[in-house]
């Protein structure tokens, strides 16, 4: 099994785990974590598959960096929403 | 722009613009509203008269606008269109007058007159449509514009009736749409052409054409109230009397009947339709409708419901005339398009007068009503006699040509249906006439809204329209051979439809 | 240059509006969107005159830089965005005043949303599509939450999760594609993919399609939409239903027309099947909905399904594409009008219920006309854009002999009529208005906006020829 495929398959496994958890878990915080796992899986596939003859391709790396930034922003928004919801719950109690 | 474009455009605008302005007026501006309405109706009538002479002289009126490649919004004022346009714009004027009197002081008159104008605009559009696409656009517009009128009173019953009306007509519209596009896939864009637009299609399309015919006729048959698609008509009776007049005589059922005429003569062509074998089923449906409507009318006590079932029956005279091959039947069907409108609107005006003046809604309450309201009752009697095809009325002319057509087309049974229908009409109208003139009036009327002032048995705006249409009923019967009479026009049209044939 | 400005400008005014504070922010936003409308018009003219063109941001060019590509379809959608956004910005301004809210976050988020939409419509590569989809999703979620009510926050969180899962799937698909073909450029892929019908490429396509279907709320992935669109503030709902869900649909359409054009038979039936399900299920829920905004939101579910019927008919060519574009336009305008009108009803009566509309019978005629005209377009009755779309769809279906499709298209119109007339029949309940509640005054601007949008959704049908022309000359790849 080549390293490329190994990376890609690991990425797919991570993605599947994350996806499963995002769909199945109801606790908001764990959902956000699960989404991050999912994202990491996709990034790994991206970088992993794109190695040609052992030389890594810079383009997907740049893309994954962008992807990470987007994921951070999404996570931040999710956390902000969750915090706000929790605070409202506390106020209601 | 030359007059050939301007006149038909102005005919549409003369009801559309007043309608739009009326929507924007405040409710209290009743004088402005009335002025606008009458100005629009008179303008339209004047335009129509100009075009009547123009078309007879062979002028061409029409315009087109391309919506999509191969899909055009096209208008053409031919003789057939003009027959329908003249009827609608003449009756629109009278109905507007009547509605102004009828709805005095009632709420939401803006909404009413706005949609009323839209409704007439849609009817004119249907009449002038030069292809199936344009026809459909205005056909659906008519549905939308009449819904608010049927629901106008706002009661549970009115909204229910309006919902039923809408359900029937929208499904009908969907059928028409499918039929149009089906036909388009077989024959390309279809322009209305005298003598038929589908000549030269091979025998391999027979099934497709039959399906398209069935879809189209079933679709417009909903508005024409062909049995079993007539269920909405009696239920739409909850609407105010001017709306009933509009539904039954000026716009909706007429649009359906007119649609059948266009489809049979100018899409398929009567010969081709005959060759396809679709005319006989249509004739059978029409005959069934004629008999069934009359039978149901016999047992109705509510006057407007009785009239509604009578419409179901009478409108199918037109369909029957269309379904019989031969110029005489055509003339009979076409002339009845106008005659039925004039006669039926008379009856509805009168029914509205009885209800509005004395609170009389039922046949059983009409004992001696002619003594209190002689003029209205005279008009009613003339209308009823017309429906029975009594001599000297417009109805007699229609029936004469239809019977002759039945004979010429070797469909003697259709002649029997017509005779039976006349007898049935007599059976449900004569008792009313007898009650009205010969029984003793009750000591008090159910609800006397308007008191008598000299010869004026009710408001003059309510009285004038039925008298005019009753006179027209007699006029169309007695003076049928005058140059501009409905009969003469119908003969002109029939001559054009059969021009290319061997008959 | 025009394209770059269309992306930079909304971001710039978003920042300015945030710095300037809520009140001046509104003015800045209105001015900004007005300029964008002019730019979008200029863009459409340019495409109509000179055909599609590519613009390399910063002069770098792919693969290092980012390429933007404009053709007839994208120019049309950019124009649509502005035509919907401008009235809604005016509406929002009046709405905030009437609600006595400040909308501090609303204006900057709106700018972000519009910038993301523009960037998405002109993206020329898969990765850029991913980024813009994600930005669009974040902006939309934040807008739903911006009202701050609990149900809005909950709906926003749900929307966010769905959106993230969807973009995750899309990203994985992009990664696989890059792994196989070594490029994300749509133009390059359009040459390579059809020649390589292997399972991984198809799988990647399926992953992207799945993600995009979730984003477009296609049945059965629609769960997040009614909650989000039904609970958001009226102008936000209008924007989301009109434009945001169309963006992901646009991506599907674009991929189907370019990269996956050779796969027609294998992938097309699935979206159409789900679309049929969406029509039936969405209409059913709309018929039963008690809240007005829920009714309209479920109508969106149904109408989005209607769009997906397009795919098996694309083989017919230009005709089907025109139908799709007309449907997108008509639905966007009509749905924006419906939500705007619902916002007015909510503001005036204080109630968000279908039955409660009866208290508005006889008043607010412009709003009722907005409901009526927008409804006409959704039902697909002439002369609206929705009608012409229906006409073309049936035409295409008959050409392809797809009888079930005809049935679905016709049924969709009739079902829409059934739920739209649940709203309209309330206008005539004059007899039962005795227990009328006190109504709050509504700013005229809001009424006119709802009416103008609705009228536009009907009149767009009369301009269908110009639209078909733009799609034709500008050609979608």
Task: Kindly list the characteristics that best describe this protein.
heterotrimer, A: 93 residues, mainly alpha, 3 helices, elongated, B: 503 residues, two-stranded antiparallel sheet, 20 helices
Please, what is the oligomeric state? heterotrimer
- Average pLDDT figure of chain A: 86
State Rg of chain C: 21 Å
Q: What separation lies between the terminal Cα atoms of chain A?
A: 57 Å
Q: What is the overall shape of chain A? A: elongated
Question: How many strand segments of chain A?
Answer: 0
Order of helices and strands of chain C: HHEEHHHHHHHHHHHHHHHH
Q: Termini distance of chain C?
A: 21 Å
Percent of residues of chain C in helical segments? Answer: over 70%
Biggest beta sheet summary of chain C: 2 strands, antiparallel
* Helix proportion range of chain A: over 70%
Counting H and I runs of at least 4 residues, what is the number of helices of chain C? 18
**Largest interface pair:** B-C, 43 and 39 residues
- Poorly predicted runs of chain A: none
Counting helices, strands and paired strands, the structural category of chain C is mainly alpha
The portion of residues forming beta strands of chain A comes to under 5%
Taken from the alpha-carbon principal axes, the silhouette of chain C is globular
Q: Major sheet of chain A, described briefly?
A: none
What average pLDDT do the residues of chain C reach? 87
Beta content of chain C: under 5%
In short:
By secondary structure, chain A is mainly α. Chain A is built from three helices and no strands. In chain B, helix 3 packs antiparallel against helix 19.
Layout of helices and strands:
The complex is a heterotrimer of chains A (93), B (503) and C (477).
Chain A: H1 3-24, H2 28-49, H3 58-92
Helix pairs in contact in A: 1-2, 2-3
Chain B: H1 3-24, H2 30-56, E1 62-68, E2 71-76, H3 79-102, H4 109-128, H5 132-150, H6 156-187, H7 206-223, H8 232-235, H9 241-250, H10 252-268, H11 270-276, H12 279-298, H13 303-323, H14 327-358, H15 369-372, H16 374-387, H17 394-408, H18 412-438, H19 460-478, H20 486-497
Helix pairs in contact in B: 1-2, 1-4, 2-3, 3-4, 3-9, 3-14, 3-19, 4-5, 5-6, 5-10, 6-7, 7-10, 9-10, 9-14, 10-11, 10-13, 12-13, 12-18, 13-14, 13-18, 14-16, 14-17, 14-19, 14-20, 16-18, 16-19, 17-18, 17-19
Chain C: H1 2-20, H2 22-50, E1 53-56, E2 67-70, H3 72-99, H4 106-121, H5 126-145, H6 150-181, H7 186-192, H8 199-215, H9 224-231, H10 234-257, H11 264-288, H12 292-308, H13 318-349, H14 365-379, H15 385-400, H16 403-424, H17 444-459, H18 464-474
Antiparallel strand pairs in C: 1-2
């Amino acid at each position: 099994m080549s390293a490329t495929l190994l990376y890609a398959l690991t990425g797919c496994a991570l993605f599947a785990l994350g996806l499963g958890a995002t769909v199945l878990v109801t606790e908001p915080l764990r959902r956000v974590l699960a989404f991050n796992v999912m994202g990491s899986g996709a990034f790994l596939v991206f970088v992993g598959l794109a190695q040609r003859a052992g030389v890594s391709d810079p383009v997907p790396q740049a893309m994954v960096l962008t992807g990470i930034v987007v994921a951070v922003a999404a996570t931040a928004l999710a956390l902000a929403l969750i915090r706000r919801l929790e605070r409202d719950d506390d106020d209601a109690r | 722009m030359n007059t050939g474009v301007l006149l038909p455009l102005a005919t549409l605008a003369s009801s559309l613009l007043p309608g739009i302005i009326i929507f924007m007026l405040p409710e209290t501006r009743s004088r402005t509203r009335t002025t606008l309405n009458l100005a629009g109706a008179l303008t339209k009538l004047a335009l129509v008269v100009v075009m009547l002479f123009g078309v007879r002289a062979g002028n061409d009126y029409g315009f087109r606008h391309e919506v999509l490649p191969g899909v055009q919004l096209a208008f053409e004022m031919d003789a057939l269109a003009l027959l329908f346009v003249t009827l609608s714009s003449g009756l629109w004027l009278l109905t507007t007058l009547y509605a102004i009197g009828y709805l005095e002081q009632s709420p939401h008159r803006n909404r009413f007159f706005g949609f009323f104008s839209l409704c007439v605009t849609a009817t004119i559009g249907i009449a002038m449509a030069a292809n199936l696409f344009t026809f459909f656009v205005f056909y659906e517009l008519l549905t939308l514009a009449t819904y608010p009128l049927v629901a106008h009173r706002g009661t549970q019953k009115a909204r229910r009736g309006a919902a039923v009306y809408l359900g029937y007509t929208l499904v009908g519209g969907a059928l028409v749409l499918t039929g149009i596009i089906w036909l388009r896939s077989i024959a390309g864009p279809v322009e209305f052409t005298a003598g038929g637009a589908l000549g030269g299609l091979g025998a391999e399309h027979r099934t497709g054409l039959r399906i398209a015919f069935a879809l189209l006729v079933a679709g417009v048959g909903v508005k024409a109230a062909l049995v079993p698609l007539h269920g909405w008509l009696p239920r739409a009776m909850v609407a105010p009397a001017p709306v009933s007049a509009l539904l039954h005589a000026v716009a909706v059922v007429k649009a359906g009947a007119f649609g059948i005429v266009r489809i049979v003569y100018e899409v398929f062509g009567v010969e081709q339709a005959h060759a396809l074998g679709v005319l006989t089923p249509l004739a059978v449906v029409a005959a069934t409708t004629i008999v069934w409507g009359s039978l149901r009318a016999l047992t109705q006590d509510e006057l407007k419901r009785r009239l509604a079932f009578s419409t179901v029956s009478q409108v199918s005279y037109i369909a029957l005339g269309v379904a019989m091959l031969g110029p005489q039947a055509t003339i009979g069907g076409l002339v009845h398009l106008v005659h039925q409108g004039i006669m039926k609107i008379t009856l509805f005006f009168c029914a509205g007068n009885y209800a509005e003046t004395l609170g009389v809604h039922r046949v059983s309450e009409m004992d001696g009503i002619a003594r209190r309201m002689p003029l209205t009752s005279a008009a009613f009697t003339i209308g009823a006699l017309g429906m029975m095809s009594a001599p000297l009325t417009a109805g007699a002319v229609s029936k004469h040509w239809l019977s002759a057509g039945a004979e010429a087309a070797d469909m003697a049974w259709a002649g029997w249906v017509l005779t039976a229908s006349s007898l049935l009409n007599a059976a449900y109208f004569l008792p009313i006439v007898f009650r009205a003139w010969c029984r003793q009036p009750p000591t008090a009327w159910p609800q006397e809204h308007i008191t008598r002032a000299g010869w004026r048995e009710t408001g003059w705006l309510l009285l004038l329209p039925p008298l005019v249409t009753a006179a027209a009923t007699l006029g169309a019967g007695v003076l049928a051979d005058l140059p501009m009479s409905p009969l003469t026009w119908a003969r002109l049209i029939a001559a054009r439809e059969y021009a290319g044939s061997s008959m | 240059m025009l394209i770059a400005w269309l992306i930079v400008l909304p971001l710039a005014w978003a920042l300015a509006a945030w710095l300037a504070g809520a009140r001046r922010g509104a003015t800045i936003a209105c001015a900004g969107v007005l300029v964008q409308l002019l730019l979008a018009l200029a863009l459409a003219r340019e495409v109509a005159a000179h055909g599609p063109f590519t613009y390399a941001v910063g002069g770098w060019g792919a693969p290092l830089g980012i390429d933007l590509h404009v053709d007839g379809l994208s120019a049309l959608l950019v124009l649509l965005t502005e035509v919907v956004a401008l009235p809604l910005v005016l509406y929002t301004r009046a709405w905030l005043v009437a609600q006595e809210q400040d909308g501090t976050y609303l204006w900057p988020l709106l700018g972000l949303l519009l910038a993301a939409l523009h960037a998405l419509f002109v993206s020329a590569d898969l990765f850029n599509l991913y980024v813009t989809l994600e930005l669009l999703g974040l902006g939309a979620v934040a807008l739903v939450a911006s009202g701050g009510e609990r149900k809005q926050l909950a709906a926003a969180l749900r929307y966010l999760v769905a959106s993230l899962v969807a973009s995750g799937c899309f990203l994985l698909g992009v990664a696989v594609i890059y792994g196989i073909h070594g490029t994300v450029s749509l133009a390059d892929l359009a040459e390579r993919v059809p020649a390589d019908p292997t399972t991984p490429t198809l799988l990647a396509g399926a992953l992207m399609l799945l993600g995009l279907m979730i984003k477009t709320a296609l049945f059965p992935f629609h769960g997040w939409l009614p909650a989000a669109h039904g609970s958001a503030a009226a102008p936000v709902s209008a924007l989301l239903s009109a434009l945001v869900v169309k963006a992901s649909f646009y991506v599907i359409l674009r991929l189907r027309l370019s990269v996956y054009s050779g796969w027609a038979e294998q992938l097309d039936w699935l979206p159409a099947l789900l679309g049929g399900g969406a029509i039936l299920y969405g209409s059913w829920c709309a018929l039963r909905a008690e809240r007005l905004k829920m009714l309209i939101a479920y109508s969106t579910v149904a109408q989005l399904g209607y769009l997906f019927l397009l795919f098996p008919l694309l083989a017919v060519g230009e005709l089907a594409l025109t139908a799709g574009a007309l449907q997108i336009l008509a639905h966007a305008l009509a749905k924006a009008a419906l939500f705007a009108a619902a916002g007015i009803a909510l503001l005036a009566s204080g109630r968000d219920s279908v039955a409660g509309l009866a208290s508005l019978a006889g008043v607010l005629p412009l709003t009722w006309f907005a409901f009526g005209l927008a409804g006409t377009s959704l039902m697909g009755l002439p002369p609206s854009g929705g009608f012409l779309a229906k006409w073309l769809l049936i035409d295409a279906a008959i050409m392809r002999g797809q009888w079930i499709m005809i049935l679905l298209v016709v049924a969709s119109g009739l079902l829409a009529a059934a739920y739209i007339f649940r709203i309209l029949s309330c206008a005539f309940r004059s007899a039962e208005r005795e227990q009328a509640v006190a109504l709050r005054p509504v700013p005229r601007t809001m009424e006119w906006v709802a009416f103008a949008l609705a009228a536009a959704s009907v009149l767009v049908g009369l301009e269908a020829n110009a639209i078909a022309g733009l799609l034709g000359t500008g050609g979608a790849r």
